[in-house]
Amino acid sequence: MSFLAAATPTTTWYLILAAVLFGIGAVGVLVRRNPLVMFMCIELMLNAVNLSFVALAKKMGDIGGQTTVFFVMVVAAAEVVIGLGIIVSIMRRRPGATADDISALKG
Amino acid sequence: MELVVFVLAAAMILVGAVGVIVRSNPVHAALSLILTLFGVAVMFVAQNAHFLAAVQVIVYAGAIVVLFLFVIMLLGVDRSEDLSSEPFRIQRPLAAIVGLGVIGLVVAAVVSSRDAIMVRGTGLNVADTVGDGDTNIKQLARSVFGDYVVAFEVTSVLLVVAVVGTVLLTRRVKGSGKAS
Which of A5, B22, B144, B180 is geometrically suited to a Cys-Cys bond with B173, CB 3.0 to 4.6 A? Predict the structure, then answer.
């Protein structure tokens, strides 16, 4: 098992994991029709980006990456609040609406 | 040891992420999201971002997912939906192709440029004094309240705007009985 102890995860591993997480989130947004679950998939993508920011901050020795993650979290919280408010007000008018039903603004 | 932490946290993240997109019940999807968020918090600790790990658990798992669950319960959509039928038959294969393409492109970019990442900062968690345990928080605080203080003030405005906007969006107009 000594080769396992010697193998330490490098920044590349973290970035690849973040890429996979982002891809899963993107597929979720494209496949799911429940607006709530689509929002959760957007959170997955934001977390993937946060993960790569933190990994690069460690690699580059620069705290700026972690500062960016801090701001991304704030914006994500604001975005969830607004998005859920919109979803609640849509669902009140049309219970059980999916993303396909909300096409009134389509050009 | 680092490898074990990485593998376990990566398994948490990926299982949770797949759970979010395949579980038919939104409540189960939200709980899978918590699993992913905790895995990301473990990764943050492994990458010397201790403060962000705490914020991740408190804000994401503690507030955002609870908000999701609250809205799910409020709207009464906490039952399984039928995922087997798909109105556009081509959509799922296309989505899989897009997802795999995104993953492939990013992985190719990361692998091909892995030697190009330069060290340009002063290093993370450099202690001012020996035995100082708060270096991550101190460094982050100097960055947020020093270099990025204008952005910090703008985010406070953003939060106020978000709260006021949500209250306006979801309130009912008195007398009409309908959502405004």
Answer: B180
